[in-house]
Amino acid sequence: MDSPAESEIPKPKQRPIIRIGSSSPMISDQDVSRASRFIDELNSLYLESRSSGIEIPRLIALHMANLGGEVSYHKFQSQPNKFHPLHFFTSPNAETNRGNETCESYATNTVGIIRASRGDGKESIVLVTPYNSVNLSQNEALSLGIAYAAFSLLAQVTWLAKDIIWLAADSQYGQYNSVASWLRDYHTPSFDGFGKVDAANCHGSNGIQESNLDMSIETEVSDTFRRAGTMAAALVIKVASTSEDGNQDALNIYAEASNGQMPNLDLINVVSYLAVHGQGLQVKMEKLVSLIDSKWLKFIGEVFESVGKIARSLNPQLKFGISVKDYVEGSATLVSSLYNQALGVPTGSHGAFRDYQVDAVTMEISPKITFNSLGRQTEFLFQGGRLIEGIVRSVNNLLEKFHQSFFLYLLTSSNKFISVGVYMIAFLLLVAPLPVVAASLFSDAIKSDEDKATSSDSNSYKSWRWLYPAKTIFLIHLWGAIVSLLPYFIYKIPDSQPTSNILIWASLSIFILTVLHLFFGPHTCHLQEWALLKSVTVSAAFIGLCLMSVINFATAEIGALLLVPMCLVVKPWRAARKVHSALSLVLVVLGFPGVAFFVLKAAFGVQNGSGLAEFWYWLESLWAWNSATYIYLCMVHLPCWVLCIYILLHPC
Amino acid sequence: MPVQCTMDLHFCYQFLVLLLLIIEVKGSQVICYADFITAMLIRAIGQRLQVADIQSLKLLGAGQFLKISENFQSGDVAALVYLWNPLTIITCLGCSTSPLENLMIVLSLYGACMRLVPLAAFGWVIASHLSLYPVILVIPLVLLIGCGLDTPPQKLFLQQTHGDDHKETSESLNPRIFSWRRAVLFFLWATAWAFYVLVLCGLSLKEYSGLGEMFKRTYGFILSVEDLSPNIGVLWYFFAEVFDFFRDFFLIVFHINILFMVLPLAVRLHHRPCFLAFVYIAISSVLKSYPSVGDSALYLGLLGLFVNALADMQFSFFLFSGYLGTLLLSPVMHNLWIWRGTGNANFYFATAMAYACFQIILVVESVSSMLKHDRALKQDTTTVAKKLQ
Q: From B331's CA, which of A65, A591, B147, B338 has a CA 20 to 30 Å away?
């Protein structure tokens, strides 16, 4: 999996329409000093009135309007987590039902739009700054300040060809929810005004009109939903607390959206190129920390390094050598990237954009020291503003979307990736034994049958005998589908604990399995039947894995690592030797999703919470985020596991 | 064993009625009923075919095959395969009109099997009117009406009579005399029905610029492949890619492709007109300009009619897995291309091509195993005849 075949991008491609970072930054002292003042006002306002979350959106709106943007509020409700496992196939617009909730659960996004002087208003670029309007932290104020500085500049420039939308997203109900609900309303125009009436009822209690901050702009700020064109790209700007190992400011890029979808690689390239070469930031990706210190990984890295050295000494043209540090860090990043993609849970609010085919990344800037002086803050604002200006300018100059073919990749560092053409080879080699084994078992079973048929002369339909095992497998997969729907009913139980939930789930599943077994029990036991059963099981696993590799590659890869050895090795314990059956027993135990979860956690040294409750929460996060991984677990992995046990215990 | 079988069948039918009731709430009732009537007609055809099969096998004295062909009630199998096929259910839920086309095709086959000439002509005319491709079914229909249901090859009967000519008169053993009277009757009826349909269409389309426009908008639309929106066939991709000045040439090539196969198959399989109809339907559903899963549902159902003859079909498991895999993969690829935007048209087209390949393998395999079945019959009868001598 950690193949050293990482394709390096030497330089961003030089296309006629875009030349990254060629123009000198235009952000001026004026923009930054305004931004500093804005941050001060935010802080003082927050210290004055901690009570309601209304004043900060108003202040932001005021400043946006003063810069010359069109401002509007967007009110939304927090969406409760729902259980809809097949969400993957439905479009995001499908669920616009609004529940009648109390007015307290409303939050307010502030949206400012700059109309492009040179554009036709058909395209736009989105800047998102999540902040908590009830509990504003210093970092959030800084991120608002950076966006403000950039917005202030962009309001004046003449080269703008795409509209700029600044979304100050109120994240008191979660960063993702605010952005997702704004996007949903952006893409579903409502003509009946249903949502507006709903929100207007709450004005009395929410009191935007009653606020006495500054009534002069009230005419400009409207509740009507303002739109710009289709979104070309979106940037989520965040400021993290100080970086750990810092003699340099660092930039973390988060890109994984739901179901392991990634934004276009070009966007990540633009961001990392500008951050490194323009602003001297250290670009980092998320990595699994425990792997960096692991001895065996270092050992493999050393082997690769020495092999590379030997190769180069033989022929200077061969340059596949990789240093130990690069290898270890690349592997740690790769594992983390793979895990995040496999989980199918977006790593930030940029995930909401991917559902509408908009490329988006989260840029988390972490300064090297705390801001004790004003000068340091100004410098930081300059840096952030310049970075955003550069990215906006690059995206602005594009005549069409980014090149369409770089969506399927795994990142090993911010400027190295493994493309689909490389990692698919590894996956295909992994699953290739499955159809071969299925075919050989099948033909063996048919042949041995033929030998018998010549003597007894009764057995026709021998090429259709797979229908009986296929029935069993269909039933088990049906069981898997039922199991995947059970949590819907478990949620109806009031006041339930995670541990008891998971026990109820397991016992109900086993009960249903027993009932199915009693009703549609196995017909007459045939001597060679297990071979046919295994053959059909293996081909079902193959189809399932191939299907999943298209939906979410990372899930399929990790699933195949568990499933393929188990399916290949398993054999009835009466027919197998002792060592063989012990091996298959170990693999079957490891193949159970719950056991695999805990074993992997222990192996990577990740520890938070313990016991069954943790597993339940993990699963809960999967279906809360409509992850296809959950469907894979219940409809491919679990049935195959049950079938393997069935084969193992087969009385042949 | 037979009692249990019929019990099972009754249970299945009752369940199906329930299922139909559930679907009715959502989908269109007409289409559900059309599917159900189609299944009933397929069942009747199957029973008829089996009776004829057993009769001819008795005449040949092929005891071993007799046992095989009594194994399954092929009509029930075919009807159940048609109704329980996920493709049928999907078509039904999607309120597609292909069940109506399927109904008309099966109606004409049923009429031909029962030798109800007007009904067969009616089904044929309406089916061709609806989707044009059933026109090629005229050959199996005329064969069915002219010389009756599927039998083993003619030579075997002649051999048999040759073997023991002194015992029986040749007339009783040789039922295959082509009745020209019926065939002419069929064509007369077909002309009458076609005239009737055209007059009705002409009357109702008088305000909308008449029949010429109708031909252009229906048959012309089918033949010139104007709509290139993606479907499970392969033509949309091809004609989206092809240069404009080659378009006419390739249109002719693709349409002639179907016609090329008609005559050789008719010569080779003329003694089994129902099977010939199945092969034609399968081929046209692969190569037609706007294929849908409803067409596949029909020929998979009809495949069940020959369950006894195709008992030794090879690659059945491979074909089943292939169908399952491509049919699951193609909506995912479509989603990847259209909704998520991370894939492109090639992803979806790859599944369409794989699907076409599997369909072709199915046709080839079923034809070859049917021929093998005939060959085995021949061997068996010759040995029997030798023993008798």
A: A591
Q: What is the ipTM of this complex?
A: 0.85
Residue B323: closest C-alpha in chain A:
A543
Q: What is the pLDDT of residues B3-54, one digit of tens each?
A: 344 444 444 455 555 555 555 545 567 777 888 899 999 999 999 888 888 8
Give the count of beta carbons closer than 10 Å to the beta carbon of residue B374: 18
Instruction: Record the tokens describing residue A292, joined without a space.
Output: 């960096």
Confidence (pLDDT) at A100: 45
Predicted TM-score of the model (pTM): 0.85
Q: Are B357 and B232 in contact (CB under 8 A)?
A: no
pLDDT-based confidence at residue B105 (cuts at 50, 70, 90): very high
Instruction: Give me the residue from B68, B320, B340 closest to A261, CB to CB.
Output: B340
DSSP codes joined into one string, A273-302: HIIIIIT--EEE----HHHHT-HHHHHHHH
**Chain centre distance of CA B108:** 11
Distance, CA of B261 to CA of B275 (rounded, Å): 14
b/e map B11-47, b = 16+ CB within 10 Å: eeeeebeeebeebeeebbeebbebbbebbbbbbbbbb
Least Cα separation, residue B175 to chain A (angstroms): 29
In this structure, the strands spanning A359-366 and A230-239 are parallel
Quick one: which of A333, A331, A361 has its CA closest to A346? A361
DSSP state of B211: H
**Cα-based distances in Å from B69 to A591, B51, B57, B66, B376:** 45, 10, 9, 5, 14
Q: Which two tokens mark B3?
A: 């009692």
Strands (E), A98-247: 106-114, 123-131, 163-170, 230-239
Q: In whole angstroms, what is the distance from residue A23 CA to residue A396 CA?
A: 13
Closest-CA residue to A300 (of A280, A270, A322, A267): A322
CB A134 within 8 A of CB A177: no
When scoring A262, A460, A533 by the number of chain B Cβ atoms within 10 A, the one with the most, hence best to mutate, is: A460
From the CA of A561, how many Å to the nearest CA of chain B?
21
pLDDT digit string, tens, across residues A580-619: 888 888 998 888 888 888 888 887 777 666 677 888 888 8
3-state DSSP assignment of residue B58: helix
